[in-house]
Records
---
Amino acid sequence: MKFVCLSDTHGNHGSVNVPQGDVIIHCGDITHKSNHAEVTDFLIWFGGLNFSRKILVAGNHDRFIRKRKQEFLDLVAAHNIDYLENTAIRINGYSIFGSPFTLNNACIGAFTYHGTSEAEQIWRSIPEKVDILVTHAPPRGFMDFSRAENNNAGCQVLREKVLSVKPRYHIFGHIHESYGIESYGDSVFINASLTNGSEEIVNIPVLFEL
């Protein structure tokens, strides 16, 4: 199976050149203004792509999803999209877990948390056996360097959980300037952010095969 990964399109999804594949994964921040029209436009685009499965998690900019959850879920169901919010699915025997939550390092919006205790409560929901982990934000130390903060902005608790669980792939976004791929131990880490600081599409989706 060929997986296509992208994140942080911020309303500019129409400018993305999407390669062919079997499963597409979007790691959140689908919107800029996060209103009904913008969300609907994204879901029509995403749902219309030629993939057998389409997986989506939200991001901290996706306030519409947090505030109007049932309305969003109805839209998602109409477009045959698998929306994951600390939940898992299985595709061709591979387990995929997704979460929208982001450590609040002065970042705006939805699905944010503060401190170690909140982080532990959220990330304990990651199964001990998972093949593909999809989060909006990165674990600390893996493609998480933020120029705005001049620091690694990822979550230490998430890092510890990921290094314990050892998924084959951990896919995320959030830190636009740290786009890329890194291998560590048994896992491959992918920051699939497509936009720059001005929210222009400057990167291409990342592909891998299982």
---
Amino acid sequence: MGYDDLALSYGNLMLLLGLARIGPSSVVARLGTLLLGIACIGLVVTAIFPTDLEEARSTHTGDIHTMSFLVNVGSTILAVVLLSVSFGSDPRWHTYRRTTLTMAAVVVIAFVLQFLTLHRGAPYGLANRFFVAMLLAWLLTTSIRLRVLARDRASEA
């Protein structure tokens, strides 16, 4: 089982719940939050169904893993972009917008670089690690911003 996928699913779920509670309330933000939820479910599926080895024949389990991986990546990237754009519509998140848009652009560029290295001899592993690092950086900085806003909200009450 992919414990890293389960950990990322749990982290996405916590971010989703925090954003649903004190995140922007625009349609774009809600759509981004929904896409995080889709990624949460997809990451659990990815964890349950292991990938096929490169030399092995394709299996149903491996096919499910691959399909869920593609859904996870697509929904997560779209969530990052939509949420980054939506942060400008909420005064509490406005100061974070420039940072998050820059980081979202880096996430998209990292994904494109990863996609371009999908052929034999290309540094796919390096590109994949860069993409994962940039995605985690976006998730962590957004979580930190959410934590600051939650603390400010609690002190006002």
---
Amino acid sequence: MIKKFLFIFGVLFKYKRKILKVASFEIYYSLFFRRQFYKIYNHAERSDSMPCPYYFIYKISKFIKKNTIKHAVDLGSGNGRIVNFLSLKTNAKMYGFENDEEMFNYSIKNLNKNAKIELKDINLINYNDLNTNCYIINTPFWDDALLKSLIDKIFTSRKSSKEKYYIIIINIDVILKKIQLDTIFANFKLIKFINAGPTKSLRIYENL
């Protein structure tokens, strides 16, 4: 119990520039949603399945409501925290894709009726078939090249459409090694940025 508490405290401290807001939102919303399950993979490419802080999800919910987003998808939905929260706090139809069966089984417990999560690898999705104008990515890879490939797939699938869409990306800074943000998001413009710590941030991009 003490070891887990110290681990959680260590994670929260990484959001030190917004630590009071992050901590208060975690305490408040954890009483209602109780989605604390996480997994450490120790994998070379696949990042650990850590839940997005409620403070960031709250900010995302405000953005979704302000921009009247009707459909949003969480790519690598983990324990379902983002999908469930946004389906309850906004009018958007929420979708999620999760590759880990244990995380998937946890995520579909008490899932809101306005939400759906599928057991599927986000690298195997046909992005042309997704009905969404908002993609949420809580950094599912350690490899910046894999992330760039994912963003390119999204861009290619929307190339023939003139409709506005958004990519919301969380805590990307920790994986940037060889490829710069300007290269990964060359076809997008940054419209919102929250800096919570050296490797903890929320960025929202819009297609050009």
